[in-house]
Amino acid sequence: QVQLVEPGGGLVQAGGSLRLSCAASGLIDSAKLMRWYRQAPGNQREWVATVTSGGSTNYADSVKGRFTISRGDIKNTVYLQMNSLKPEDTAVYYCNAVVGVPSNNYWGRGTQVTVSS
Q1: What is the 3 state secondary structure string of 35-51?
Q2: Which residues contact 45 (CB under 8 A, 6 or more apart)?
């Protein structure tokens, strides 16, 4: 059974930093893509960042220059380093892994990030 576990959320003051991690278990293949999404109360889930199996990255404009996504040395792990956090970054953050052909999407349960002003 595939599981994505995302420890690392918490409460931080504006301007601070947090590092999220995500570890996927139960996958035989390496994920083609690993992504972070977030969902604030009352809002739709929005894409935050992507890292490919080759290490290429892409970011939403709202986090570009402040967040860094990276893959870990252990297969199917991904990190999100979040710096210069703003209150509007407050959301539940979800890890996503895209695996196989045709692609299968797997999601973590989410971790709460709260940024106080």
Answers
A1: EEEEECCCCCCEEEEEE
A2: 37, 38, 39, 94
Q: What's 7's DSSP letter?
A: -
**What is the spatial distance between Cα 96 and Cα 39, in angstroms, rounded to a whole number?**
13
Question: pLDDT by residue (tens digit) across 92-103?
Answer: 999 999 998 888
Residue 27 has pLDDT above 90, yes or no: no
Structure confidence by residue, pLDDT tens digits, 44-65 = 999 999 999 999 999 999 999 9
Q: Do 20 and 9 meet the contact criterion of CB atoms below 8 Å apart?
A: yes
DSSP structural state of residue 70: E
* Token pair for 112: 């709460």
Q: Where are the beta strands (DSSP E) in the chain?
A: 3-5, 10-13, 18-25, 33-39, 46-52, 57-59, 67-71, 77-82, 91-99, 104-107, 111-116
